[in-house]
Amino acid sequence: MASDAGAALPPETGFRTALIGLRAAQLSDERVDPAEVYFGALLRHLGCSATATDETRLMGDERELRASMALADAGSPASMLSAAVRGFGAGRSRGERARRVTRFLVQAPRQVPRIFSDRCEVAMRLADRLGLPAGVQRVLTEAYERHDGKGAPAGKRGDAICAAARLLAAAEMVAMCAQLRGGLEMARDLLVHRKGSQFDPQVVDLFLRSWPELVEQIQSDLRQRIVEQEPAVAVTIHLGDADQFAVTFADFVDLKSPWTLGHSRRVSTLAGAAARELGLPQADQQRLATAGLLHDLGRVGVSNAIWDKPGALSDADREAMRGHAGFTERILASSPPWRELAALAASDHERLDGSGYPHRSPSPNAGLPARILAAADMFAALTEDRPHRPAIGPEQAARLLRDEATRGRLDRAAADAVLATQGLLRGERPRLPKGITERELEVLRLLARGLVDKEIAGRLGISHRTVHHHNQALFQKIGVTTRGAAALFAVENGLL
Questions:
Q1: What is the largest CA-CA distance in the chain?
Q2: 476, part of any domain
Q3: Are 268 and 293 a contacting pair, CB within 8 Å?
Q4: How many domains does the chain have?
Q5: Measured between alpha carbons, how far is 261 from 445 in angstroms, rounded to an integer?
């Protein structure tokens, strides 16, 4: 599963990037590890979920921002301005478009490098959890570096950037252009125009002299070819243990919004425990726990302008939001380890009276596992903060679940089983990891939810400087340097 969707790139850009990059690596005079090219291409934007909220604050819609800037030259203010003017606020008033462009131009010089740094650190940490080697992790940390040193996060230049990352920068440009108006001719022009700035001159020369051979790689059968060319890579976890991967993907998705951190893990725990409460076989308990981890994968395909919206959703917003369940089903249906879970994982918003989505599946079509997942997801969501409302207490949530069962929308047995598990989910909090203090935990929780130092200070009733000192101590203790990585640490350690 490539990380295209979250990055708002044209479909299958990651596949095309990998295929072009692998062939370019074979033709290169440099020694390039094919595993670094392959996984670096497919996971190039793995950290993008961690910055979606920041990008939405920057422009208003992170997917529109990413699509608008996909071909822009980040080292050229004129190119960035042109891309912003063309792409921001499509369909909105002239005044709103001007406000979005102005906000972006004022804030981008400070915010964009930080966003790229956040993406890179989170991508590296997630790749480490997937068991990918250090070389692949390095490629992901250099995904936004440039030959001329104007990239991020470290401002590396020239050969200080690893060979795979330099190849993939050009390969992704070709892969994107191949699916857009202007096509491959535009890709050639951009490579030539940015030779020596964004792109390594030697890489550009390689691409130009091998153009027909490279382009041929993406003409047909992308999915079959990408599977055939997967290189053998030594990993630290067994590739057959799909559940460990599911936990990583759950955290990747939940990082997309500060309002959903830890949500998928919680739904998984609730659903698995409810299945045990009802005496379901061990296999069904495990299926439900995994489906709970994966049930929101499709969230990456919907803008944070919707997920983080503080007010009521419009009809168009609601329709876009509901699309995430269908995205989840399609993603899992194309992933062999979880293909059989696709329908179950996408069923969390179905209702017994046929009023849910995506399929409006009525009672006869919903098995007990799907009914449990729906109840678990509803309880988890009700007892978590959302941008348009605070969390409600467990007792009130229990009343709402029972009311939904009485109305014939939730299954009574499933709802009661979820509620019966709540004693199992409470208890003493374990000792805080890495020696962090209770106050640092308070700061971490607010930081993970997207609050800046000034907001944290106001919430906790302490000074801005004190919050800064807590952040410094916290980051040093847990070994991170960015907000996104700190949020991931909080999720991994159950601190939310």
A1: 70
A2: yes
A3: yes
A4: 3
A5: 10
* Whether residue 263 has pLDDT greater than 90: yes
How far apart CA 483 and CA 117 sit, in angstroms, is 10
If asked whether residues 32 and 119 sit together in one domain, one would say: yes
347 in Cβ contact with 255 (< 8 Å): no
Query: How far is it, in rounded angstroms, from Cα 133 to Cα 131?
Result: 6
Amino acid letter for position 458: G
Q: Are residue 379 and residue 464 in the same domain, yes or no?
A: no
pLDDT of residue 462: 86
Q: What is the mean pLDDT of residues 468-494?
A: 90
Give the pair of three-digit tokens for residue 73: 């030259």
214 in a structural domain: yes
With vertex at residue 377, the alpha carbon angle to CA 376 and CA 383, rounded to the nearest 5 degrees, is: 90
Is 37 among the domain residues?
yes
CB 76 within 8 A of CB 146: no
| Mean pLDDT across 470-489 | 90
User: One-letter amino acid identity for 402?
Assistant: R
Q: How far apart are CA 67 and CA 124, in angstroms?
A: 23
Mean pLDDT over residues 149-172, rounded? 96
Instruction: Assess whether 206 and 160 both reside in one domain.
Output: yes
Whole-prediction pTM value?
Answer: 0.84
181 pLDDT tier (thresholds 50, 70, 90): confident
**What six digits make up the tokens of 346?**
């996408």
Q: Which residue has the tokens 């930081």?
A: 447
Q: Which domain holds residue 437?
A: 433-492
Please write down the HEC assignment for all residues of the chain.
Answer: CCCHHHHCCCCCHHHHHHHHHHHHHHHCCCCCCHHHHHHHHHCCCHHHHHHHHHHHHHHCCHHHHHHHHCCCCCCCHHHHHHHHHHHCCCCCCHHHHHHHHHHHHHHHHHHHHHHHHHHHHHHHHHHHHCCCCHHHHHHHHCCCCCCCCCCCCCCCCHHHCCHHHHHHHHHHHHHHHCCCCCHHHHHHHHHHHCECCCECHHHHHHHHHCHHHHHHCCCCCHHHHHHHCCCCCCCCCCCCCHHHHHHHHHHHHHCCCCCCCCHHHHHHHHHHHHHHHCCCCHHHHHHHHHHHHHCCHHHHHCCHHHHCCCCCCCHHHHHHHHHHHHHHHHHHHCCHHHHHHHHHHCCCCCCCECCCCCCCCEHHHCCHHHHHHHHHHHHHHHCCCECCECCCCHHHHHHHHHHHHHCCCCCHHHHHHHHHCHHHHCCCCCCCHHHCCHHHHHHHHHHHCCCCHHHHHHHHCCCHHHHHHHHHHHHHHHCCCCHHHHHHHHHHCCCC
Shared domain for 350 and 274, answered yes or no, is yes
